[in-house]
Amino acid sequence: MKLSPETLEVLAGLITGESGLTPERGGPALADFFDNRAEWEPFGAGFPPAGEYVRERLAVFNGSPRLKKFVERAFETEEDGALWPDNAALAFVPVLERDGYTLRKVRRAPVPYGATVIPAKDVYQVMKIDRGGKRYVAHNS
Q: The domain containing residue 20 runs over which residues?
């Protein structure tokens, strides 16, 4: 998945919370967001500014299949009934569509996990826009 610099900038604001549409994330939460927990530990109080760190990470992953996961993760929440994911997605979709992608809200099925079950929840999925008929197709890269 490859996004334009303009789209990456808007996405960075959503990930850090600088956009005002999403909760703020700092050091360890940002490292976790990018599956990089070990990365923040050496920084301690010297972790780079959130915006700088996120922009650098997005530049590294732009053009790779992992970027899709980070776009989708920007809209995930554990809060029941939270409205911010829908509001943030609504604002981001027009920007994302310029790059040939959109977001679709889907219901993730319950997942058995040992003796418990992780409940179903709504998530956003990146879809590629087929410009021929403006159909949406699942996107895996």
A: 5-138
3-state secondary structure of 22: coil
Q: Read off the pLDDT of residues 86-121 as tens digits, 9 standing for 90 and up.
A: 999 999 999 999 999 999 999 989 989 999 998 888
Q: What CA–CA distance (Å, rounded) separates 15 from 122? A: 18
How many domains is the chain built from? 1
Q: Given a cut of 80, is residue 23 above it in pLDDT? A: yes
Enter the tokens of residue 126: 């990146």
pLDDT of residue 139: 58
Q: How far apart are CA 28 and CA 64, in angstroms?
A: 23
Pairing assessment for the beta strands 101-108 and 111-113 based on DSSP bridges: unpaired
User: Of how many residues is the chain composed?
Assistant: 141
Model pTM score: 0.84
Tokens coding 16: 């850090």
